[in-house]
Design brief:
By secondary structure, the protein is of the alpha+beta class. The chain contains 15 helices and 7 strands.
Length: 299
C-alpha cells in the first residue's frame, strides 16, 4: 500500500518528527535518514508505516508506504491515523498570526517555521506515556519505555531491523508489577499502568467516550483515574488528542523555558505560566509546544 498526503502549508516534516531521532532509547517512533517509521494498530492488525517528505515546507507532500499489506485494512483508515499522528491538517497560519505581536514567540516561530506537534496513536497511549514521564527526565523515560516496548509490544521485522508497536492495553493488563519494575518503572507507576490498562481492557473505562468531552471536563474526568494528576491529564490531552487549548502549565521544562525567555531567569510558578499563555486562548497549548521545542531543538 502506497499513497500520498498533502499537509496544509507550511509543514516541516523533519522538524515535526526529527526529535524522535535524537534519543537512543526511543523504540516506538523511529526517525532516521529522513524516514519516519512506526508500527500502528488498525482493527487488531499491526503494520509498519514509513513516511518521508517528497515536497517542501511551503509545498508539503508526504509519501506513505505500509508493510505488510492487508486486504482487510482500507487505505483511508491508515491515512486518517497517519494524518492525525503527524498533525497534517493544523492551520499554522492562524496560530502564527495570533502570536505575531509577541517578540519572543515570533522569533521562535521563525526558527521553527512549519513545526507541528506529533501525537500519540491514542489517548490511552498518551496517558501511559505521561505516567512514565512523571517526575523524571524525558531521556530516562524514553529508555524505560523502550525496554517496555521491546518486552510487550508487537514486533515487525523490516529490512533487517525490528520495529515495535506501543504495547496494548491487554499486554499491560496481564503484566506483572515486578517485571515492569525490573524494566525501570517505580512500583507506583507500575500499579498505575496496570490499573489503567485493566480498566480500559475490561471496558470499565471507555476512553473513546471520555475523549468526546469538552477539554475542561475531560481533564477533570481523567484526574479521577488512579495515578493521574493535573499535569498528567493535561499532558495526555495535548499529546493524545491534540487538544492544544489544554496546557500542562506545571511542566518543569516549560517553566524553565518561560523563565529564561520571559522572566530573566527568575523562578516562575504554574500560575505565572497560565497567565502568560492564556493570552493566546485556544492556541495556548500550541504556544507552549513551540516554547518547549526550543529546548528540544538545541539537543
Amino acid at each position: 500500500m502506497r499513497f500520498r498526503i498533502v499537509p496544509t502549508s507550511p509543514y516541516d516534516f523533519d522538524l515535526t518528527v526529527g526529535t524522535y531521532g535524537k534519543f537512543e532509547g526511543e523504540a516506538v517512533d523511529n526517525y532516521a535518514a529522513g524516514i519516519y517509521r512506526r508500527v500502528i494498530n488498525i482493527g487488531d492488525r499491526y503494520m509498519l508505516v514509513s513516511v518521508e517528505s517528497v515536497g517542501t515546507v511551503n509545498q508539503p507532500i508526504l509519501s506513505v508506504s505500509v508493510h505488510p499489506e492487508s486486504p482487510m485494512v482500507e487505505e483511508s483508515e491508515v491515512r486518517r491515523k497517519v494524518e492525525n499522528m503527524l498533525s497534517t491538517n493544523d492551520d499554522l497560519l492562524v496560530f502564527y498570526s495570533t502570536i505575531a505581536k509577541d517578540p519572543v514567540l515570533s522569533k521562535v516561530r521563525d526558527d521553527l517555521y512549519g513545526l507541528r506537534p506529533p501525537k500519540a496513536e491514542s489517548l490511552y497511549e498518551a496517558l501511559i506515556i505521561a505516567i512514565t514521564e512523571q517526575q523524571i527526565s524525558l531521556r530516562a523515560a524514553l529508555v524505560i519505555r523502550g525496554r517496555i516496548a521491546r518486552r510487550y509490544g508487537e514486533k515487525i521485522r523490516f529490512q533487517g531491523r525490528e520495529y515495535y508497536a506501543f504495547p496494548s492495553q491487554s499486554a499491560f493488563a496481564n503484566a506483572k508489577a515486578r517485571d515492569l519494575i525490573q524494566l525501570g518503572l517505580s512500583r507506583g507507576k507500575a500499579e498505575y499502568v496496570m490499573d489503567l490498562s485493566r480498566k480500559v481492557s475490561s471496558g470499565e473505562l471507555n476512553l473513546e467516550e471520555i475523549a468526546e468531552l469538552p477539554t475542561g471536563e475531560l481533564i477533570t474526568t481523567l484526574m479521577k483515574i488512579k495515578g493521574i494528576g493535573r499535569w498528567t491529564a493535561e499532558y495526555a490531552t495535548v499529546r493524545g488528542l491534540g487538544r492544544l487549548d489544554a496546557l500542562p502549565a506545571d511542566d518543569a521544562a516549560l517553566r524553565r523555558v518561560i523563565s529564561n525567555l520571559y522572566y530573566g531567569g527568575r523562578e516562575v510558578s504554574e500560575q505565572d505560566v497560565r497567565e502568560l499563555l492564556d493570552q493566546w486562548g485556544q492556541y495556548r497549548g500550541y504556544a507552549a509546544f513551540y516554547l518547549l521545542s526550543t529546548e528540544l531543538s538545541e539537543r
